[in-house]
Amino acid sequence: MLYLLSKIVGFMTPDKTPASTGDVAYQLLAHAQAGAGRDPYRAQELREAACAYLRVVR
After folding, report:
1. Does residue 19 or residue 30 have the better pLDDT?
2. Which of 40, 37, 58, 56 is nearest to 9 (CA)?
3. Domain residues of the chain, as ranges?
4. pLDDT value of residue 18
């Protein structure tokens, strides 16, 4: 669970260009898709994080 929270916070930290709402959710879903074959539970956590992020932002 802490890993999931650290990933969410890591995506929210500002970088050189500000990310829009869709970019963060897209990145989380892209990481979930890429890692689904290796660790389906982590992929599910990332999908849930993307959904939670969108609920908070909207």
Report:
1. 30
2. 56
3. 20-58
4. 45
